[in-house]
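User: Here's a chain of 263 residues. Predict its fold as tokens.
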Amino acid sequence: DKMKEKVTCRLASSAQDFYTEAYKTMSNVYLKGTNWDKWTATCLAKQNYMNGLAEYYQSLNAKAAKAIGEELSRLKEADKHLSDAVKQSSGTFECKDVQSRVNRALVAAEKDNNFIYHERIPNIKDLPSIGRAPVAKPTPLPTQLDGWSDVFASLVPLNVQQAATMYASRKDHLIHLEVTRLREATQSLNSALNQMNLPAALEDLSGQEVPNSLLEKGNDVRSKGGVSDLRNMFDELPQLLQRNEEILRETIKKKKVPTATLR
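Assistant: Prediction complete.
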């Protein structure tokens, strides 16, 4: 029983911390058309109620220690918080009974101090803070409840849908262009290979021996005079070119054929 007030004030102070955090979180959310404002006000009322309880029970500890000034300061602080709680709760929970006890204790303490102790009443900010009794830990709020699914989770905004459609159309267009170019290049390559009789003209013997077709062509060149005959033919080309030019000039003079026709 002797530890009752000390434990109670710490428990109330810890509960006040939880309600403070809850109120801060709830204040950042607004749900139109609901009773969210009432729940937020109730949470704020609970915060003031727990703060008033903590100050009240701590004033009892000060009274037991004969610290009349501290007792009065904490009773006034408790009365202020409890008055706010009564206004904010709007009857959602009972807190007037504790407020009545605080008022009676405050009146009695002021009377004793005025006639007997005459102690200075310190500022509440100058008093040591009330300790906490961490009997519970806050748990994070789950982002998704069991058995609940968000019907808008798969909904894509219109501008995103339009951008995705434009992207798909542009991608298909570019792919079609590249495939067309690839087909045209393939056709050109096949045409060039056909003109050179490739790859049919290639005889791959892995570098070990000369292909038979090449041997046959070499024998044909040798049977017709070989390399020396080919060189003689190249050497005669300038003379043959000059002779052809002379024949053309004589033909032009005799028949008077226009030069453009011959060309």
